[in-house]
Design goal:
Radius of gyration: 23 Å
Strand order of the largest sheet: 14-17-18-13-12-20-21
Largest sheet: 7 strands, mixed
Number of helices: 15
Bound molecules: nicotinamide-adenine-dinucleotide
Distance between the termini: 71 Å
Strand content: 15-25%
Helix content: 25-40%
Length: about 500
């Protein structure tokens, strides 16, 4: 097997915006720091209103004039399939660009992020000619129809936790539906999106249809949200920013929004599970994957008394087994924390929870890696009320809050969160408990006897309440990039 390790200084960073098929400079420099060693890797320019305006207007013009929306839909599908092939051919290069400034270990970007990205592009390409509209039941002298058409240009704003995959869930269905699109990646992970856009043009996407603008939320993201050429917005990030995006969309449109926001997802474990070890494995992966920096992190464990002691013992034992290596080392499997401010925030939340009465079962502490990256060990806290900060707030770090229950009703009551409703996990051998959980839990996704998405792109994902509006993935994510026109025709 080839050694996947690489050195960050050997990577050429595409440090610019991507406009009309070219990497372009423009704007003051923002420093990009790698969480793998905590040092500055490079800089990206920040797009101001003029550059955002150029990106949106160009996408609108190219969408109108290139024939992308009006060609035979299978032509669009062919370009998208070629794009997926190019993503695979350039897989190692993309994986390194993704790993170098994000929290994603190279083994995982090579083994999952990039193949998943390529297959996701193929998945949405398959919808290009599948959804057109309906004929309505009218009197025979009329012809009534509903016809889908693209918005024109959509705006996409992505987070840093899975930079390419999260961005692709927005831009690919939008392009497949016939739109142009402007993407703003996170200012912390800006590079891989530019290479992805270059490959799209190489695959045959009209230059200027998909543009990338770099910058911070306030200087660039907000301007993009408010731009008059943006007909629809898709955002993934925190609930607080999602609210700002929706406000901007309302005030500059109104325009529709898809919001994929934060979570505080519960995992319910009942006494009847057949293997404590297997469930411990699942729960551990669900709160330590990407060091807990996953929207659907299973961060609240609600466990029945009969199995609690054994399960907690198994989880605590696993906490001491993780090792910190820079993400570009082939041995790395545990992720760093994206930034120093985020590490401070996590440690403060843990500290304030302990002060409020939480009991430490496994401590969340700084870990050392050879290269000096930002790492925190997985922590487990037992809480006895629902007011503890670690029970209430999205930590976005490797911290599990635990509560014990006796009766099923208690478990379902504990699972409810006043704000979030993104995902939930249920671990039980009882079909009737599982069925009750599916109906009762207020979450956009319920997993039974597993935790986490499969590679089935067809299952949509999205939250309830403060966790968001609308869906990524699935047919729904394609349809949301189309608007419905009603037509009624009479013979002259
Ligand atoms: P964030 O909200 O800080 O930033 C997300 C993006 O929004 C970034 O590109 C940022 O620059 C931009 N932004 C910030 N302020 C803006 C504004 N006023 N207008 C427009 N854009 C603005 O989130 P983050 O820290 O990058 O990501 C972590 C969060 O994302 C967590 O809360 C996590 O749960 C959530 N998330 C949700 C999902 C999901 O599918 N539900 C998936 C991944 C991450």
């Amino acid at each position: 097997m080839t050694d996947l390790s690489f050195r960050p200084e050997d990577i050429t960073l595409p440090a610019g915006h991507f406009l009309s098929g070219k990497i372009v400079p423009g704007g003051k420099d923002i420093a990009v720091t790698s969480p793998g060693h905590g040092r500055i890797l490079g800089y990206v320019p920040e797009a101001g209103p003029d550059l955002v305006n150029e990106a949106a207007q160009t996408a609108a013009r190219v969408q109108r004039e290139s024939g992308w929306a009006t060609c035979a839909p299978r032509e669009r599908a062919r370009v998208l399939r070629r794009w997926a092939d190019l993503v695979e051919q350039h897989g190692m290069e993309l994986a390194r660009l993704e790993t170098v400034c994000s929290t994603r270990p190279i083994v995982q970007t090579v083994g999952w992020d990039i193949p998943f990205l390529a297959e996701g592009i193929r998945f949405f390409s398959e919808y290009c000619d599948k959804i057109g509209g309906d004929v309505a039941a009218t009197s025979a002298n009329l012809l009534g129809m509903t016809v889908y058409e693209p918005y024109g240009v959509t705006g996409a704003i992505a987070p840093w936790n899975f930079p390419l995959v999260m961005a692709s869930w927005k831009i690919v269905p939008s392009l497949a539906a016939g739109n142009g699109t402007v993407l703003k990646p996170s200012e912390m992970t800006p590079f891989s999106a530019v290479r992805l856009a270059e490959l799209a043009v190489e695959a045959g996407l009209p230059a200027g249809l998909f543009n990338v603008v770099q910058g911070t939320g306030l200087a660039t993201g907000e301007v993009l949200c408010r731009h008059p050429n943006i007909g629809k917005l898709s955002f993934t990030g925190s609930t607080r920013t999602g609210i700002a995006v929706m406000k901007a969309a309302a005030e500059s449109g109104p325009k529709p929004v898809t919001l994929e926001l934060g979570g505080k997802s519960p995992q319910l474990v009942f006494d009847d599970i057949s293997s404590v070890d297997e469930v411990a494995d699942r729960i551990f992966r669900a709160f330590t994957g990407n060091a807990g920096q996953v929207c659907v992190t299973g961060s609240r464990l609600i466990v029945q008394r009969g199995v609690a002691k054994l399960l907690i013992k198994a989880l605590v034992a696993k906490c001491s087994q993780v090792a910190a290596h820079a993400p570009w080392e082939a041995v790395a499997s545990y992720s760093p924390i994206i930034s120093e401010p985020q590490a401070h925030r996590i440690l403060n939340l843990v500290e304030s929870s302990v002060q409020a009465g939480a009991q430490t079962l496994a401590p969340c502490l700084r870990m050392n890696s050879e290269e000096g990256g930002i790492f925190l060990s997985p922590g487990i806290l037992m809480v006895t009320d629902t007011y503890s900060p670690v029970w209430q707030e999205e930590v976005f770090g490797p911290v599990l809050a635990v509560q014990i229950f006796d009766e099923d009703d208690e478990a379902f009551a504990l699972a409810e969160h006043p704000v979030y409703g993104l995902a939930a996990g249920v671990h039980t051998a009882s079909m009737s408990r599982a069925m009750r959980a599916i109906r009762t839990l207020k979450a956009g996704t319920v997993w039974v006897n597993r935790y986490g998405r499969s590679s089935d792109f067809v299952i949509p994902t999205g939250g309830f309440g403060g966790s968001g509006i609308g869906k990524d993935l699935g047919r729904q994510a394609f349809e949301t990039n189309l608007r419905l026109k009603s037509v009624l025709m009479a013979a002259e």
